[in-house]
Amino acid sequence: MECNTSELCDMFAENIDVVDPVFSSFGARLSYSGEVTTVKCFEDRGLVDKILATNGLGKVLLIDGGGSLRRAILDADSVQLAIENDWEGIICFGALRDIDLLEEMDIGIHALGAIPVSAESREIGDLDIAVNFGGVTFLPEDFVYADSTGIVLSGEALDVD
Questions:
Q1: How far, in Å, CA of 116 to CA of 98, rounded?
Q2: CA distance 116 to 146
Q3: Tell me, what's the pLDDT at 104?
Q4: Percentage of the chain exceeding pLDDT 90
Q5: What is the domain range of residue 145?
Q6: b/e for 106-144, b at 16 or more Cβ within 10 A?
Q7: C-alpha distances in angstroms, 82 versus 27, 30, 51, 56, 76?
Q8: pLDDT digit string, tens, across residues 58-93
Q9: Which of 58, 104, 121, 158 is the most buried (most CB within 10 A)?
Q10: Is 39 helix (H, G, I), strand (E, B) or coil?
Q11: Helix or strand or coil: residue 84?
Q12: In 3D, which of 135, 136, 152 has the Cα closest to residue 33?
């Protein structure tokens, strides 16, 4: 679903949190939204790939990578897996790589930055827990809305029709 975060802020100011503007957009889809699924991992992409291999219809994956820019938690293979499993988008508090490929892929992606070095794949981390970054606490089953302007979070789905 397309969304306009500026309009959401005007319409639902009392019901949303605005994520600090620390992210850049990398995917071809400039606007996306969905129910939050969380993963917390530090310089390890194993759990990210594992969850992206599951059905993501109507969902956005929130990755708390500890803000590390030393290892890429996402790459084109991970994102292709997300597309094949119908994920709406990915927000990564960490780094990614293959950005030239990612900008052609039909999915929303926000991340802190890019680096060519891949993270390990040991499946170390936690799934479906509260994560905090960008001045906001994300809970599984919250709803996130993102576009080129920013990212907003709501405890419930917003009626934008």
A1: 7
A2: 25
A3: 97
A4: 96
A5: 5-154
A6: ebbbbbbbbbeebbeeeeebeeeeebebbebebeeebbb
A7: 12, 16, 9, 7, 10
A8: 999 999 999 999 999 999 999 999 999 999 999 999
A9: 158
A10: strand
A11: helix
A12: 152
